[in-house]
């Protein structure tokens, strides 16, 4: 009778999007590419969807909440807050 030793299975660590206060808004958005975010704008509106592309002055948000077939182009300098789910639960 042979006994095989097996390494315990480790749960895969899920990548958690994290915002970094030491980085620019552009760099934070680029790091969140493909993730769902909410952008709070200086005019009081909020745009929620997935970060599709980040340029020097604009970010393209795809799959806008409530308008999944639409995209939005948002000026980065009009973003006053970036909201992203950082923890499960």
Largest sheet: 5 strands, antiparallel
CA-based shape: globular
Please provide the ordered H/E string of secondary-structure elements.
Answer: HEEEEE
Q: Would you state the CATH class of the domain at 25-84?
A: Mainly Beta
Distance between the termini: 45 Å
Which structural class should the secondary elements be placed in?
Answer: mainly beta
| Named CATH topology of the domain at 25-84 | SH3 type barrels
Helix % is under 10%
Summarize this structure briefly.
With about 90 residues, this protein is mainly beta.
Sequence-ordered SSE layout with sheet pairings:
Layout lengths: L24 H7 L4 E6 L4 E9 L3 E5 L9 E4 L3 E6 L5
Antiparallel strand pairs: 1-2, 1-5, 2-3, 3-4
Structural summary, described in words:
The chain is 8% helix and 34% strand. A five-stranded antiparallel beta sheet has the order 4-3-2-1-5. The chain contains one helix and five strands; from the N terminus they run αβββββ. The mean pLDDT is 86. It has 89 residues and is mostly beta strands. It has a domain at 25-84: SH3 type barrels (Roll), CATH 2.30.30. It starts with 24 loop residues before the first helix and ends in a 5-residue tail after the last strand.
